[in-house]
Amino acid sequence: MFTIEHEFDATVITLVDEGATPLQEDVIVNNFAECITVEQFDARTDSVVRITLSPEQVRDLAAALDLPEGVYQLRPAD
Question: Which distant-in-sequence residues (6+ apart) come within 8 Å of 35 by Cβ?
């Protein structure tokens, strides 16, 4: 299950784990104009872990999900 909320400065997507137990903590994706952050609470450290990706890194990640093993470089269409 997931939710999508449009806030003033970002679109927030929350991914809720509905798989088999043990379930993972919710994943929150904040889509800002200049970057995308991915956050998840870590119960072991009692803190939120955050990574920040550029829009280009997110584009590459999305493409990589459907490609076989290898090295790739996406180029703009001419």
Answer: 52, 53, 54, 55
